[in-house]
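Request: Mind sharing a record?
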Amino acid sequence: MKSSWFMVHGSQRKILFAICYLLIANLIGCATIIDGAKGFAGISTKALENGRKEAIIKTFNYDYDNCYKKTKNILARMGTYIYAQDAKKKMLAFYVSELDTTPVGVFFKEIDANNTQVEVSSPSTSAKEFIAAEVFKSLSPKEKPAEPDA
């Protein structure tokens, strides 16, 4: 009896069909192979990018590089787990913590040489609000208390 790659039976045929179907659907569909693989692994940033229209947005008086570095340090102090950094998309993607794998993204947009817009996006409203509040508070300059009149 000849052994052939095409001669698969039962569950092997179903698995092979499923793999072929996913590959073809991935090539024909909107997602790229890389996005499909990232989504399968649970690390895609597509949902964060798509959620930018509902992002919480604030502009800060920092140039892009300083704003990016400060935000990254804030996220590290908060104990988030950064799983993607994309300089081209000007974004950081992370999980709220090592135990809470709710994805959150911070996107940066240069307004001018001294101002950067920060957008916080997440499929979870509570995660988005929590991260935005903490990051925005830490990026905001501390107000000096008013001096008493002499």
